[in-house]
Structures are given as C-alpha cells and as structure tokens.
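Justification of resources, computational component.

The compute hours requested in this renewal are based largely on the per-chain cost of generating structure records like the one below. Each record pairs the submitted sequence with a full structure-token output. That output is archived, and it is also reused by downstream analysis tasks.
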Amino acid sequence: MALNRLQEEAGAAANLVEMDSVPGGYELVSPHRTNKVDSLDLVELAKEIQKADTFVHANVSNKLQVIAEQVRFLQEQARKVLQEAKDNADLHHIPCNFVKKPGSTYHLYRRPSGQKYFSIISPKV
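The structure output for this chain reads:
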C-alpha cells in the first residue's frame, strides 16, 4: 500500500519531458526500457527528486544568509556614517567667540546650564 502511494506521488511529482519523434534524431533512452515501469525505479526517481529539492533549498538558504549578513554590515556602516555626520553637524553648530582655523586644536566644554562651547584654552592650564 505504501509502495503504491510512493509510486503515485513519484509519478505525479516527476515532470517528464514529452517524447517527440524527431526525424534523424537520436534516442537517448531505449523505448523498451522506458515503457516498462519498475516500482523501484519510481521510488529511486522520487528519492533523487527529493535530494535535488533539498540541495536547491539549502543552496538558496545559504545565498540568502550571505546577503542578509551583507545587509547587516551595510546597515552598520550606514549607522556609523549617520552618527559621524550628526556629531560633525553638532560640533559645527557649537558657539565660539573666535574664528576657527583648520588644523588648530580647540577644546569642548559644557557649562552647568548644559550649553556647550569651544575654547582655545586647554583644561590643563
């Protein structure tokens, strides 16, 4: 009973190519062999199809995992870039009572009120 069910499932799941007779063509499989259906052949065919499906599924899963890791990496890079841009924008909007010159060292302070400001005076003085 179980063998009959496997045979039916194998026959239903296996999509076989229609055989058109091509003049001057070659037959790859003997019609004498293919006309005789052996129940063990169908079971083996079903097993091979199942193995192929499992392989395809595993292959796709692995590729999707690699893509997901790449997306997570890119998200982290984007987060760092956005944080750096925010920090730079914050620094450029902090008030100071002098003209900032590239290459100079400035010190960032915070008043008790919470206001930030730049100074050229080092905290070590």
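The helical segments are 2-13, 31-35, 39-92. The longest strand covers residues 107-110.
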